[in-house]
Amino acid sequence: MAALVALRVLGLFAGGKRAKAPRLPVTAMGLEFGNPLGLAAGFDKNGCAIQGLAALGFGFLEVGTVTPRAQPGNPRPRLFRLAEQRALINRLGFNNDGMDQLAARLRTSRRPVPIGVNIGKNRDTPLPRAVDDYRLGFAALAPYADYITVNLSSPNTPGLRALQEPERARELLGALYEDRAALERRSGRRVPIAVKIAPDFAPETLETLLCVLKEVACDAVIATNTTVERPGVGHLRTATEQGGLSGAPLGPRAREIISKVFKALPEIPIIGVGGIVDAAEAWKHLLAGASLLQIYTGLIYEGPGLVHTILAGLGDRVRATGHDDFASALSAARRNLSSGEEPNMVKLS
Ligand SMILES: Cc1cc2nc3c(=O)[nH]c(=O)nc-3n(C[C@H](O)[C@H](O)[C@H](O)COP(=O)(O)O)c2cc1C
Question: Which residues of the chain have pLDDT under 70?
């Protein structure tokens, strides 16, 4: 991908210097972030462009999804643009270099911002053995990750989303949280585990999954992955392509899920992702309950300047609440919203 090559080069020249991003410090999952805006999984699957991406001003990066063994992903074409809607449909299918390559890269690379590592299963691993793949991924990568994301929600690996069913989720997450405890006993470091969920749920399925997440004391929920539905784009010919839809049309649906997770599990931090293409949309995800944010498709359409544009817009909204720090501004804005008061920053959208 040309953008990744350019970012690798930028990383070489940035030499550790980062463009000055507005400071909006956030603490979540026991980690400190310089600002709440991260790069979503899938953009830098193999951790090749960490320095260049950090230089764009992101507060954190999520690399992967990586699987135990390298795999080529689905045949091309597998990525489709819906440019007017600022959306993409992808069915890449976890093309990646495998966990050992990524571990080797992370072992030797500087980490200028917190790095999350998103793990999944190989396409040819049968579903009943999926737990083995995730445990291998955790063992190989947790030592080099600030947090691990368990991806249960990509639509392009057949059967993967079935891991969101309560019994399967309980078995998988139970095993990973045990491995995490064992690692903590050995190394003294507790690696947070986040769970990335889909936007496409029957209401009862989401509720039961959230009960499991509460039971295992999940460290964070990432909401959401791409959608297999076609909200607002169904009339387009490209919309018939199989795969997950991302970008602007996903925003309202992702926010609905964020808001349900926030109501059900107010104590668990949410990383809000899906359809953030400007600061107004980013702020809405935060008001719905997200503590941190991620972007992918917006970056493709708006370019790397989007990181600063969003952070500057969030800075304006924080100041408009009259609070100095991000966390108090956000709680105040959420309180205003629930009490029906018209917050000042609505004018900024
Ligand atoms: C081309 C492409 C590849 C993606 N690959 C992954 C992936 O490997 N793992 C994952 O968890 N999410 C993946 N995603 C989903 C994104 O991380 C994100 O959840 C989704 O695109 C919604 O955010 P956005 O609207 O800002 O793009 C991918 C998205 C796109 C567009």
Answer: 1-21, 340-349
Give the number of the atom of ligand 1 that is nearest the alpha carbon of residue 295: 26
pLDDT of residue 144: 97
User: For residue 83, what are its two tokens?
Assistant: 């440019």
CB 329 within 8 A of CB 318: yes
* Residue partners of 330: CB distance under 8 A and separation at least 6: 286, 287, 291, 318
This prediction has a pTM of 0.95
Quote the pLDDT of residue 324: 86
Domains and CATH numbers, the chain: 2-338 (3.20.20.70)
In a mutational test of the pocket of ligand 1, which residue from 43, 96, 246 has the highest number of ligand atoms less than 8 Å from its CB?
246
Q: What is the pLDDT of residue 125?
A: 96
Q: Which residues pair with 7 in a beta bridge?
A: none
Residue 277: closest CA among 293, 258, 256, 259: 293
Q: What is the C-alpha to C-alpha distance for residues 299 and 247, in angstroms, rounded to an integer?
A: 10
Give residue 342's pLDDT: 46
Distance from residue 196's CA to the centre of ligand 1 (Å): 11
Using alpha carbons, list the distances in angstroms from residue 125 to 7, 9, 68, 149, 157. Answer: 33, 36, 10, 19, 10
The dihedral region occupied by 260, where left means phi > 0, alpha psi between -120 and 50, and beta the remainder, is: alpha
Write out pLDDT tens, residues 25-58. 999 999 999 999 999 999 999 999 999 999 999 9
